[in-house]
């Protein structure tokens, strides 16, 4: 599990670049927020095809690590390519980078599910999301320094850091605890049927990622432009939010046992909804709040987000048997990508008006 958490840290760095830097960087290079959002959306749409295919093949072969390693290589290589000065290559790199990191979630989540002992999913997914978010926070601390030197240099530095952290994943052996975790699964167990429970969960996933996933990549730009701070400072502010989410995710397993998974999930979703409603309705007033009140709102948002992200993976995983983890996460990936790409394009187009 420790080696998997090292991989989670690498994912955290990659997501730090995606959430905090990618769209503002592309906007600066192409001088078009709409184009930047559409490039990211294109990469996410490609994931609709790759995510489910990877999930299906992973379930059939039980070789999730093969896909994880390949997607890590593609993600890190494309992140390195973002430092290019050629606009065509930059656009291609942005699409491939987005596709690879969203496709990576399918086999990675399925693998964690397969190595989790009964009753430990909340804890293990909490650790996975916690380490990922804390790594994203640490990434945000260095983003400002790296960007002050050169935007292109920042991508090179973080590509190297992500590559170093992912090295332990490549030393797994097929006979280890993360190898063939489901030996003996019968053919009929591999049949995947979409029932009412799956439909309900997927509808909730669409709503969650449309509202939350669509706005997160733009938050750094909003903070930088509307509050009037530098891109590096805005990234650090978002990094603090990510740190709180990460620490909360680490605590999710304990909180879930104390309060119950359902009650904890509903409470966290209610907090998120209230924060979104407050900021949306009173946006001008929110911008005029003092730093302390802004910090309180940010901490509430981050606390609830950390719980939702950790429990969200467990809830999706629990809808099917161990034999179909890749398929359900592939389906979830499709729903998540469709909702988030739609939201990204919509927000980008509205900003461009």
Please describe what this structure looks like.
The chain is mainly alpha-helical and 353 residues long. The protein has one domain: MFS general substrate transporter like domains (Growth Hormone, Chain: A, Up-down Bundle), CATH 1.20.1250. Helix content is 82%, strand content 0%. The protein has 13 helices and no strands. Helix 1 runs antiparallel to helix 2. It is globular, with a radius of gyration of 19 Å. The termini are far apart. About 3% of the residues have low confidence.
Brief account:
By secondary structure, the chain is mainly alpha-helical.
Defining traits:
Growth Hormone, Chain: A, 353 residues, mainly alpha
Topology (elements, then pairings):
Blueprint: H1 2-30, H2 33-61, H3 64-81, H4 87-115, H5 121-149, H6 151-166, H7 196-213, H8 216-228, H9 231-259, H10 261-281, H11 283-287, H12 291-317, H13 325-352
**Inertia-based shape:** globular
The CATH superfamily turns out to be: MFS general substrate transporter like domains
CATH top level is Mainly Alpha
Instruction: Compute the number of helices.
Output: 13
What's the story with the biggest beta sheet? none
Number of domains: 1
Helicity, as a percent range: over 70%
CATH architecture level-2 label:
Up-down Bundle
Rg, nearest Å:
19 Å
Total beta strand runs = 0
Low-pLDDT stretches = 174-185
Q: CA-to-CA gap between the ends?
A: 48 Å
The share of residues in extended strands comes to under 5%
* CATH fold assignment: Growth Hormone, Chain: A
Q: What is the residue-averaged pLDDT?
A: 77
What is the string of helix and strand elements? HHHHHHHHHHHHH
Please state the structural category.
mainly alpha
